[in-house]
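Following the same procedure, sequence and fold were stored together, as reproduced here.

>
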Amino acid sequence: MLDGVIITPATEDDWEAFGRVRLASLREPGSPQAASLGREEGFREPHWRLRLRGAMYLLAWEDDARQRAVGVAGMMQEPGAPVEERLIVALFVRPSHRRQGIGAALVRAATHWAAVDDAKVVSAWVVDDEEPAIALFEGSGFLPTGERVRMPRNPERYEARWSLTLANDEVVQQRKEL
């Protein structure tokens, strides 16, 4: 299903591929982060390298030659969140590579890296009207927490927090009574 796609942690040396896939995600119609496109289009090598130093990113490569990134997922500790929680951010798969299991593989890789980093909970903010994203996180074992906020750059839309509890590097689903 992944047809030769490999997923690796991004390094600073991957700055060009990371920048290209990040800009592709911002150009996506309806992108929650589209408002930052103009700023990020002006980024040069030092900006992309700094971005890669500031958080953990995973890249999905078209093949083992690592010439073209077809997907990305970031992971960070959200400001103010408990030390044992990680947040998946900037999840994107190029349209030409969707419905091939790459998004699910990126989420699995991110939860693995979170567990390696001693996280106990992995969460993600998912836009309420993004059915494919909801299906992806639901299919990956994430559950809605009940926390819902307006999107900062598009207050007509909402996003909800979904989370997955990890235990001893094994995923444990924990239902919260709503």
